[in-house]
Design brief:
By secondary structure, the protein is of the alpha/beta class. The protein is built from 14 helices and 13 strands. It has two domains: 85 residues, no CATH class; 304 residues, Periplasmic binding protein-like II (D-Maltodextrin-Binding Protein, domain 2, 3-Layer(aba) Sandwich), CATH 3.40.190.10. It is globular.
Length: 394
């Protein structure tokens, strides 16, 4: 076959080749910023191949126009798919607008109806620092506003200097173990966090502050309204892969996870009861240093997705009717079912401190910290826990 006769065949192969090329990009989850250059290189290479095979300069414009049109169409399709994916809401408790709960500055702090029975002066306020989980910030920020002197208590500082910061569960445990903060408000530590504390020669002390439940949620259009704990385990081991297996539509299940060490990921591991977790969905992001790294993907509210978090933040998300909380073992996640123990996955959340193994807990040696934690467990502190949206211990 001459080069001229082979040119149309090469053109057809180039056009059809866009399909597996797109599939390869999707399979590799190549970041969007690299897709356009890759497609441009593909189109240019195809154009040069066909022009060389054609061998006729008079046909250069025709082939360039054809291949250029194909490249533009392909880019438009890719851009359309990208725009569609971007339009699907991302739901993640890391996106909680913390400044709205900041003591003496936010509009959503929960205020006592009367003056707190415990009042700190500036020296007492500065005698210990705190950090904690994103979803628990509304609780301990309200504690601060109730008993600390009026002032500025920012939830974040690039130097990690502050009385009441909120760096999230993972970093809060890291800072506690490193001795960079004194008390953190978090869920029960994971096995790795306990091991990290032990490796540092520390013992963790857990003071229960309130109760909460762990919930699973799906897109509000998903007809599935409940699962059993065993079905949840099957989904997250990869044994159950289609919603039709649990009474839903014939759609592949897209289970999302959270990053290792987060409070909700630790809760999922407890639910799994030692069963192996499937690999989480990941995406590529820039780490700010010019390199691309993989991170656990945030929950994307696809029609076939399932995610999890704690009830407080789930209620924040449910307010926009985008998701539905699932009943577990036939029981809805409510304050009442947490209180009476009928919801199968509920637990305490804690104020956690650390001390060298064999030594007294900090709350036994720091009078202000002891008074603070006693107050948190007392009537007024528990009123705040309840009115923020969690369940008190009483």
């Amino acid at each position: 076959m001459t080069k001229e006769r082979f040119a149309p065949f090469a053109l057809a192969v180039s056009v059809i080749g866009f399909i597996p090329f797109f599939m390869l990009i999707g399979y590799l989850r190549i970041p969007g910023e690299f897709c356009l250059p890759l497609l441009a290189v593909y189109a240019l290479g195809a154009a040069l191949l066909v022009m060389w095979l054609d061998g006729a300069a008079v046909k250069l414009r025709r082939w360039t126009t054809i291949l250029g049109s194909i490249a533009v169409a392909a880019l438009l399709v890719w851009g359309g798919v990208d725009a569609y994916i971007a339009s699907i809401p991302t739901l993640d408790d890391r996106a909680l607008t913390l400044y709205e709960y900041q003591p003496y500055a936010g509009e959503k702090t929960t205020q006592l109806p009367e003056k707190a029975t415990l009042q700190f002066d500036q020296a007492q306020a500065e005698s210990f620092t705190m950090d904690g989980a994103t979803a628990l910030y509304p609780v301990y920020a309200s504690f601060v506003q109730a008993i600390y002197p009026e002032g500025e208590y920012p939830w974040w500082d690039f130097r990690d200097e502050g009385i009441a910061l909120c760096n999230g569960t993972t970093e809060a445990y890291e800072r506690l173990i490193a001795g960079e903060t004194d008390v953190i408000f978090v869920a029960e530590p994971s096995k790795k966090q306990r091991e990290a504390a032990a490796a540092a020669g520390l013992e963790l002390h857990l003071t229960p502050i309130g109760r909460e439940c762990f919930v699973f949620f799906v897109n509000s259009r998903n007809p599935v309204t409940g699962l059993t704990v065993k079905q949840v385990q099957g989904i997250y081991t990869g044994e159950i892969t289609n919603w039709s297996q649990v009474g839903g539509e014939n759609r592949a299940i897209r289970p999302y996870q959270r990053d290792e060490g987060s409070g909700s990921q630790t809760a999922l591991q407890l639910v799994m009861a030692g069963l192996p977790l499937m690999e989480p969905e990941t995406h590529h992001v820039s780490d700010g240093m010019g390199t691309i790294i993989q991170e656990v993907a945030s929950y994307k509210n696809y029609a076939n997705a399932i995610g999890y978090t704690f009830r407080f933040y789930a209620n924040e998300m449910v307010a926009n009717d985008q998701i539905r909380l699932l009943a577990l073992n036939g029981v809805e996640p409510t304050k009442e079912t947490i209180r009476d123990g009928s919801y199968p996955i509920s637990s305490y959340f804690y104020a956690v401190t650390a001390s060298p193994i064999g030594e007294a807990a900090p709350e036994k040696t720091n009078a202000a910290l002891k008074a603070f934690l006693d107050w948190c467990q007392g009537e007024q502190g528990q009123w705040i826990v309840e009115n923020v949206g969690y369940v008190s211990m009483k």
